[in-house]
Amino acid sequence: MKVRVISSLVGLVILLIVLALFDTLLLNLMIALIAFLAVYELLSATGCLKHRGLAVLSLLVSAAVPFLVSVPGWLLLACYLYLAALFLLLLRFHEKLHIEQVAMGLLFTLLVSFSLSTVVVLRDRLGTGLGVFYTMVALGSAWLSDTGAYFSGRLFGKHKLAPYVSPKKTVEGAIGGVVVSELLMLAIAWLCAAAARTFWVPIQVHYHRLLLVVPILSVMSMVGDLSASVIKRQYGVKDYGSIIPGHGGIMDRFDSALMVAPLVFLLSLWFPLAVQL
């Protein structure tokens, strides 16, 4: 537990630094690094890392997308060239490289890189203040749900949520995660609004809308978490890595955010949770 807490504090410091420099290329670089490591872990867990060509192509694209999302033409070109290169690899190495491996490489690369890169798009579309707010809604909903579910499950957990996929998760923990996320996200939203008034352009948070959508975001974060656990179970992997002491790999920390970040982006388009004053 001590190692887990220390790692969380270090992660919080890194997050604060990135938020302070949110309108710089540091954000793109950090998203690219996270995407690169997450895709590496997924390819490793599923055995796809063994094919060097597939791995190199997928890792390069995963790191490039966060820099290209703001330039649609170049992004489409990169995706087309990636797809073409994958099929060329399949034709050249069809005896060793199977279509299932190509499909997994494509899925992992585009899912992780595009999902995480929505943060960059939010910043570029909405500015720093709203970008920080929506980023914290995405990460906060995912991580607070996970933390709330962990402690609630330990205190009150009796009924298994998904025994095969994740034996330690309980229904009571899931409910606790939603409640904790709902309560603490109000405080985080208030802090984001205060920071925007101080450092950027003031924003107005629609707290009633936030109350409505946080439970949905919390549930989707659990879907992301359990989906990543299915992959681990099917391939006999305990953790995706050990880069974060006490937590595991990058995927073990960001799997829940992969389902939440795109939904938060869609909310910013169709059901805004805050507006710039």
From the structure above, extract its key features.
single chain, 277 residues, mainly alpha, two-stranded antiparallel ribbon, 9 helices, 5% strand, globular
What would your notes on this structure say?
It is a single chain. The protein is mostly helical and 277 residues long. Helix content is 77%, strand content 5%. The protein contains nine helices and four strands; from the N terminus they run ααααααββαβααβ. The strands form two sheets. A two-stranded antiparallel ribbon has the order 1-2. Strands 3-4 form a two-stranded antiparallel sheet. α2 packs antiparallel against α3 (52-68). It is globular. The termini are far apart.
Sum this structure up briefly.
With 277 residues, this protein is mostly helical. Helices cover 77% and strands 5% of the residues.
Order of helices and strands: HHHHHHEEHEHHE
Q: What structural class results from the helix and strand content?
A: mainly alpha
End-to-end distance: 42 Å
Shape: globular
Number of helices: 9
Q: Work out the helicity level.
A: over 70%
Low-confidence stretches: none
Main sheet properties: 2 strands, antiparallel
Radius of gyration, Cα only, in angstroms?
19 Å
Strand order in the largest sheet: 1-2
> How many beta-strand runs?
4
Q: Approximately how much beta-strand content do the residues carry? A: 5-15%
The average pLDDT is 90
Q: Assembly state here?
A: single chain
List the helices and strands and how they pair.
Elements: H1 2-20, H2 25-45, H3 52-68, H4 72-92, H5 99-126, H6 128-156, E1 160-162, E2 166-170, H7 171-199, E3 203-205, H8 207-234, H9 250-270, E4 274-276
Antiparallel strand pairs: 1-2, 3-4
Helix pairs in contact: 2-3, 2-5, 3-4, 3-5, 5-6, 5-9, 6-7, 6-8, 6-9, 7-8, 8-9
